[in-house]
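Researcher: Go.
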Amino acid sequence: MEDRSAPRLELLQGTLDMLVLRTLQWGPQHGYAITQAIRVRSAEALKVETGSLYPALHRLERRGWVRAQWRPSENNRRAKFYCLTRAARRHMEEEESAWSQFSEAVAKVLRAAQKGTAG
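Model: Structure:
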C-alpha cells in the first residue's frame, strides 16, 4: 500500500546525477550510504531507489565523473565505493550554475502565476 502521508517528490531527469555527485563531494561512499545521505539531507523528501541509483552511478562512471573501488564497508562487508574525479568537480560547477538559473526561472513563473499576472 502506498504511503500518502508524505508527498513523494519525483526527480527530474539529470537531477539524480547532480545529487549523487554532490553527495560524493563529501568523500567516497558506497551506494547505500549515497541513498541515505540524499534522504537525510533532503529531510526525507527524496528517496532514491536502488533501481535508479545504480544506473546513475554506472552512467557517471562511463562519463568519467566517478571512479569505483571495492573495499570493506563500515560493517566489514565488501562494497563498491564511489569517488569523484577532477572532471566531475569541473562539471559540478557548470551544472550547479545551470541548475540555479533554471530553478530561479521556474520560481519566477510560479510567483507570476500566484499573482495572476502574465509577465
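Model: Helices lie at 15-24, 31-41, 50-62, 86-115.
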